Amino acid sequence: MKKKQSWLSVQFFVIMFTWGIFIPYWTAWLVESKGFSIATASSLVAAGMIARSFSSFYLFPTLSQRFPLGKLARILVAASGVLLLLFFPLSSFFGMMACMVLFSLVYPMLMPLVESMAAVMMKKDSIDYGKSRSWGSIGYTSALLLAGVITSVYSEGAIIYIMFAGIITILLSSLMKLPESMSEPRGQERMSYRSLLKSKKFMLAMGIVIFTMGTHAAYYNYGVLYLKELHVSNMYIGVLLNVAVIAEILFFALSDKFLKRKSISVMFMTASSAAILRWTMLFMFPSVAMFVATQLLHAFTFGLTHYAFMRLVYEELESKDLPAAQGVYTALGSGLSTAVLTFVSGFLYEYASGYAFLGMGIVAIPAVVIGGIMFVKYERKPVVQRAFR
Q1: Mind telling me which residue stretches traverse the membrane in this protein (predicted)?
Q2: Is the dihedral of CA 188, 58, 5, 213 positive or negative?
Q3: Shortest CA distance to 371 belongs to which of 195, 193, 194, 212?
Q4: Entry pTM
């Protein structure tokens, strides 16, 4: 049990380490190192997100049915390393666009992959999800700190080298002895989204995820540039971005203890309400102090949304449907919706940086409404019954 928990924690750490480079720093790398404008860099990132949506929605569930999850991890990491090398010599828009699409078809599949590993091991090995997921957050925060220090010395051009080193580390960790549940064939049953479509609760949850997770588009893609606008040096940008991740780490470390029996719909409504507050406050009070204060809300806007979704798929779906559910979650929640809102927030950011955050706050409003519908339709009676016990 302990070895299996440790194995999953390592996978979360190394994969999230590279994610901590790719998500917050890639737009800045395109602007500062490759010389693209913010609008052009946004179009490249958004195109990658659209490709990510396709791979997460279709390629990942398909591949996960054909290969054991542990073996699939090795294939995806090796392919990601090869494709990342293509970025080094390219500088033209069309060359970078082609490279971005190819890389985004493969590398982002590591995210639904590690979450599917966790979901399967929750069911078969009784691992503590929050404990292993918190190590993913530690990996992310380590990447932010390292990137901040290195770019302050060598500029944004160093980002791709850190990213490549992270990919190599994932490959080495994937060669560790696999738990039995990660070596088992996934079966030859045909991939189907029918079970997901039959679950109305899952469909409502996806609506909430799309609106809430999508609102992180402005923060993920322009957070580094926004801090530069506030005259924060590279050395401290990683530190300030880490406030959100520290809040996330604390959340996941305590999540199972305090939230295991809480209403899923109430958690979703709390998370989306926090998103409205977080982005609106950044618009109203553009300062380093407010940026740091709103970073604490990341525990709710991301952490609580993610935890509530994982709880829902664990309770609602069978093991065979988990890769498809994770694929849909990544494709729509952190892929397509974020891609669309990257275009929108990029346009708003060019006009005025604060408007990009205000737009994200407005987008989160429908998520609160959908969460209310879920509560009334599925969870109001159980909550009332528990209150009178």
Answers
A1: 7-26, 38-60, 72-88, 94-114, 135-154, 160-180, 201-222, 234-254, 326-349, 355-376
A2: negative
A3: 212
A4: 0.73
Main-chain dihedrals φ then ψ at residue 100, nearest 5 degrees: -65, -40
| 277: three-class secondary structure by DSSP | helix
The whole-number average pLDDT for the span 362-384 is 83
Estimate to the nearest angstrom the gap between the alpha carbon of 240 and the chain centroid. Answer: 19
Residue whose pair of structure tokens reads 């406030």 in the numeric block: 243
Higher pLDDT, 343 or 15: 15
Torsion sign (Cα): 367, 370, 374, 380: positive
pLDDT in tens, 59-84: 887 888 788 888 888 899 999 999 99
The residues near 223 (Cβ < 8 Å, ≥ 6 apart) are: 24, 241
Two structure tokens written together for 280: 């609106």
- CATH at residue 309: 1.20.1250.20
The number of folded domains in the chain is: 1
Any idea what the Cα angle at residue 112 is, between residues 25 and 194, rounded to 5°? Answer: 140
Q: Is the per-residue pLDDT at 115 higher than 80?
A: yes
d(CA 28, CA 159): 9
Both tokens of 332, joined, read 């729509």
Task: Report in angstroms the alpha-carbon separations of 181 from 70, 117, 185, 199.
Answer: 9, 9, 9, 26
Residue 384 banded pLDDT, cuts 50, 70, 90: very low
Residue 94, number of CB atoms within 10 A of its CB: 8
Which residue type is seen at 293? A
pLDDT tens column, 290-321:
999 999 999 999 989 988 888 888 787 776 77
